[in-house]
Design goal:
Distance between the termini of chain B: 68 Å
Strand content of chain B: 15-25%
Largest sheet of chain A: 2 strands, antiparallel
Strand content of chain A: under 5%
Oligomer: heterodimer
Shape of chain A: globular
Structural class of chain B: alpha/beta
Distance between the termini of chain A: 22 Å
Number of helices of chain B: 15
Radius of gyration of chain A: 23 Å
Strand order of the largest sheet of chain B: 2-1-3-10-4
Number of helices of chain A: 10
Chain lengths: 288, 342
């Protein structure tokens, strides 16, 4: 998702915000087929997994679905006086990570939108800041995380910093692009009617940029999600990434697989929520 | 589209088979003259063997590859995958490897070193902690799944401090150093070289040397894959001989030993010598004594030590079951000791 913004021709009055992922509208008959196809794919995947686990007969290599299920029960209950994994239930590990992702994303998105608007409206700032944003975007979070440890310690602060910084660039870039390509006709019309710069941004530019910004947000949340394991490499328990890392060190592959499922499934859920929010907030998306 | 789908399906079907092949290729073929060695960057005779090419000299017709690993956990994984034949690994990961569910078929064939003053529990000045029992309610860091983690819990146990009374944080040595400098930690159980920095601004509460005398030693071991032992017993003998040459060098010519170790660890010879002097290195003849490997007729106490490490892991919920003493004794390779080291 590299977003380079071509300068729109001055005469172009159409709304220049192409939807990145238009939700494909499917006819009603196709819906059942789609659900069936997905179910079938799941069954096939499950069968392949089971076969692979049995063929290798090595739970450290490929733990069987049964073993992963067993771990799900073990890590979600208190048994023999031991509570979950490392003293926390699976859902608590996931909850702690989701909280980090939420706070990190909110800070990153807020910062990204702000930066994006400034970049999109003030051209010299854009010239200065754009390479920096692209630079940060290219950095793997693990590479700069050790710096955060030195600066911010080992508790929550460095983790939130890491997630915010990982989430910021996609939103900033998407917002800047959308703001920059705001329809000149509308902007000029608003100015002609006497709107101040701030009002033009608030009432014309931002609503127009909303679909693009939302795409940026979805990418940002995805990036924050995939960075949470990196953020939890240091003092990450409780936390789903810390749990995976700990299990990995003790070769508990079944717990690792369980953790991956937990991350993947909750990621799907959150993306679905964001998509619902998107279609509620921007009903006109994909219809222009 | 259909074509792509069938291609993907074919690839998914092939994938597990490919993994299976990878797992099956061990060092069990007597005709394949190669040794894959996993080593770690801690000061020991193993680095001298590597640096001076002792094994390459002893086995000129073998192709020997050395791979650096960061932890015993990753070495265990490599053994499971059948990708290494011989490794230098801590006693805690070995105990894990010999227990269910891993049950790695490898044999303990050498004691590289015993942790001495090179691993220690240090309290930060300003934390107000002067002894182990003073750690209640404090924050202590150690790299989880390491020998230091085992030693920390052993030290707490010895002082009658419950694990739940202390906040134990999982940090790698370099991160311990960073958090320590910021004042985030009250104490840490770590090893050289980060331990040096901690000692500058802290008080040593207990060292692994003291724990070893109290019956909780942590060691670095040399392990060999069982099928490699069966297929290449002569090569294993040559490897043990090379390791005891290195031990002798550490005892008889510390300066020369330190030079080799220093090159491998990017340390000055003086620094390497100082670090070597803090570890405990056995004399080759001691290996066959009842305290360590023993002989093939009477396996030594190392087996008991590994069982007790496994019991510790069981209480930590990190393994499914503790292996019985006989199983662990069977995993100690003392064939031909002590004469073979000659």
């Amino acid at each position: 998702m590299t977003t380079t913004v071509p300068a729109p021709p001055a005469a172009d009055t159409s709304i220049g915000a192409p939807a990145a992922t238009p939700a494909a509208a499917t006819p009603h008959g196709g819906r059942r087929r789609r659900v069936l196809l997905r179910l079938l794919a799941l069954v096939v995947l499950y069968a392949l997994w089971e076969i692979a686990a049995r063929a290798t007969r090595n739970p450290t290599f490929i733990p069987s679905p049964g073993a992963v299920w067993h771990q799900l029960i073990q890590t979600s209950t208190t048994h023999d006086g031991i509570r979950g994994y490392s003293g926390r239930l699976l859902i608590e590990h996931l909850g702690v990570s989701l909280r980090r992702i939420l706070i990190g994303s909110v800070i990153g998105v807020a910062g990204g939108v702000l930066l994006g608007v400034v970049m999109g409206t003030v051209s010299w700032i854009r010239v200065v800041v754009e390479p920096v944003v692209t630079f940060i975007r290219a950095l793997p979070p693990l590479a700069y995380f050790s710096l955060f440890i030195i600066w911010f310690g080992i508790d929550e602060t460095p983790k939130l910093w890491l997630l915010s910084i990982a989430a910021l660039p996609p939103v900033a870039v998407a917002t800047a692009a959308a703001v920059h390509s705001a329809p000149t006709g509308l902007v000029e019309a608003a100015q002609a009617l006497g709107a101040s710069r701030a009002r033009v941004i608030r009432d014309v530019v931002l609503p127009n940029a909303l679909p693009e910004i939302f795409t940026g947000i979805r990418i940002a949340v995805g990036v924050a999600y995939s960075s949470v394991v990196a953020a939890e490499t240091i003092n990450g328990v409780p936390g789903i990434g810390g749990m995976i890392r700990d299990a990995q060190r003790y070769s508990q592959t079944d717990v690792v697989v369980l953790g991956l499922f937990a991350i993947g499934l909750s990621g799907l859920l959150i993306d679905a929520l964001l998509r619902t929010a998107e279609s509620r907030l921007i009903p006109w998306r994909g219809q222009l | 589209m259909r074509k792509i789908l069938s291609l993907v399906a074919a690839a998914t079907l092939l994938l597990p088979t490919a993994c299976g092949d990878g797992a099956a290729s061990g060092g069990g073929d007597p005709d394949r003259k190669s040794i894959r060695i996993a080593y770690q960057a801690f000061p020991s005779g193993d680095l001298i063997v590597k640096n001076q090419g002792l094994l390459e000299k002893a086995l000129p017709d073998y192709q020997i590859t050395w791979t650096k690993f960061d932890s015993g956990a990753s070495i265990n994984t490599a053994f499971v995958a059948g990708s290494v034949d011989i490794a230098a690994i801590g006693s805690s990961p070995v105990a894990r490897g010999l227990s269910a569910p891993l049950n790695i078929p490898y044999q303990v064939a050498f004691v590289l070193d015993v942790a001495g003053d090179n691993e220690a529990l240090v309290a930060r000045k300003g934390s107000g902690v002067t002894d182990v029992s003073g750690l209640r309610g404090k924050k202590v860091a150690t790299p989880f799944a390491s020998t230091a983690h085992y030693s920390l819990l052993a030290a707490l146990d010895r002082a009658g401090v419950k694990e739940s009374d202390v906040t134990i944080v999982d940090l790698e040595p370099q991160d311990i150093q960073a958090a320590w400098t910021r004042g985030d930690l009250d104490a840490a159980y770590s090893w050289l070289p980060s331990l040096d920095e901690l000692r500058k601004t802290g008080t040593v509460l207990v060292t692994s040397r003291e724990l070893a005398t109290a019956g909780k030693p942590t060691l670095d071991l040399g392990v060999v894959a069982t099928d490699f032992v069966t297929a290449h017993p002569a090569a294993v003998d040559a490897w043990r001989k090379a390791q005891s040459q290195a031990l002798n060098l550490i005892h008889n010519d510390p300066a020369a030993a330190a030079k080799s170790v220093g090159v491998e660890l990017n340390l000055s010879p003086e620094e390497a010598q100082r670090q070597l002097s803090q570890g405990v290195f056995l004399k080759p003849a001691d290996l066959a004594s009842p305290a360590w490997l023993g002989t093939s007729a009477a396996k030594g106490q190392l087996a008991d030590n590994l069982v007790s490490a496994a019991q510790f892991l069981k209480t930590q919920q990190k393994i499914d079951a503790v292996p019985d003493l006989a199983t662990v004794q069977a995993a100690i390779y003392a064939e031909g000791l002590p004469d073979v080291l000659g």
